[in-house]
Amino acid sequence: MMMLGRGLDARDNQTRQIQDAVSNVEKHFGELCQIFAGYVRKTARLRDKADLLVNEIYAYAATETPNLKVGLKNFADEFSRLQDYRQAEVDRLEAKVVEPLKSYGTIVKLKRDDLKATLTAKNREAKQLSQLEKTRQRNPSDRHIIAESELQRASLDATRTTRQLEETIDNFEKQKIKDIK
Questions:
Q1: Strands (E), the chain
Q2: Looking at residue 175, what is its pLDDT?
Q3: Extents of the domains making up the chain
Q4: Which of 29, 131, 151, 170 would be 104's cystine partner, CB 3.0–4.6 Å?
Q5: Rounded (10°) CA dihedral 159, 162, 167, 168
Q6: CA 9 remoteness from chain centre
């Protein structure tokens, strides 16, 4: 009995650590996503203002002398090329940073569902364990055998779901590290 209780405590600690890791990712990746999205929006607005500036320079150049007109148009062309780079930056950040960070909202939700299933199995195991102890105290042999088989089934279920959770969290951590890189 004492051995089984320690196993439950170890699994509870492991589950708590996994919950903390998922919550940590949810919090920080959410913040990163919001900040990067704000940066992308502001960069896009800056690009839009620069496009307005280029159009105004072209309009002004049309009213000036030929030499000044050529200089202003050359400046406007170069400034416009800079905005093309800014647009490429916006597109890259949106595709390579913001979208992957957004997807973590769904990923975290799925991991929370996995955790919930594991906790349900662990609770069922703990309930079966307490029922087994009550049955042992009463000591009828039939109930004892039935309760032990129920406990064994619940323990196997909890172990299986814990193992599945470990695998999914390992994959989650690997994907998180890959996405951060």
A1: none
A2: 79
A3: 21-180
A4: 29
A5: 150
A6: 27
Cα–Cα dist 165/41, whole Å? 37
Q: What is the pLDDT of residue 140?
A: 60
Question: Strand locations in 12-55, DSSP E?
Answer: none
Task: Say how far apart CA 31 and CA 175 lie, in whole Å.
Answer: 18
Helix (H, G, I), strand (E, B) or coil at 65: coil
**Whole-number pLDDT of residue 47:** 95
- Average pLDDT per consecutive 10 residues, the chain (181 residues; last block may be shorter): 54 81 88 94 96 96 93 95 95 93 88 85 81 71 69 77 79 79 69
pLDDT at res. 58: 96
CA distance 131 to 121: 15
Residue 48: per-residue pLDDT: 95
CATH class of 21-180: mainly alpha
Query: What is the total residue count of the chain?
Result: 181
CA angle 119, 145, 164 (to 5 degrees): 25
Q: Which two tokens stand for residue 122?
A: 């662990």
> Half-sphere exposure (CA, 13 Å, Cβ side) for 142?
0
Q: Taking the model in full, what pTM does it have?
A: 0.66
